[in-house]
UniProtKB/TrEMBL annotation:
Protein name: Flagellar hook-basal body complex protein FliE
Superkingdom of this protein's organism: Bacteria
InterPro entries referenced in this protein's UniProt entry, alphabetically: FliE (IPR001624)
Gene designation: fliE
PANTHER family in the record: FLAGELLAR HOOK-BASAL BODY COMPLEX PROTEIN FLIE (PTHR34653:SF1), PTHR34653
Annotated family: Belongs to the FliE family.
Keywords: Bacterial flagellum, Cell projection, Cilium, Flagellum
Organism of derivation: Massilia consociata
NCBIfam families in the record: fliE
UniProt main location, coarse: other
Subcellular localization, as worded in the UniProt entry: Bacterial flagellum basal body
Amino acid sequence: MSIGGIGGIDSSRIQAMMEQLKAAATKPAAAPLAPAGLGNVGAKPAVEKLDFAEALKTSLQQVSDTQKAAQALGQRFAMGDDTVSLSDTMIAMQKSSIAFQGTVQVRNKLVSAYHDIMNMQV
């Protein structure tokens, strides 16, 4: 069922989560539509271009926010806050860990791609 006993996450669930993240990252943002009767009739809506640097910055900020939230929950639990349960704290920490591991894997792939490109003969 799961690796690591109760509450463990098996590799197939991690792989499925990574596939969802990849699908979400490649899906283009929807362009805003003008109300009926406005704008050029028959004109195609402008396609919003994705900025890699902005997408990377947003992803890193989300991972950082996840880590900060998990740390704050851990501190609140350690201080004896009755509104924070151990299970919520552990889940937040696992989510933070998975997000960080995913970020490290993306970084490794980017570094590998950079080295491959730099080693190409022109």
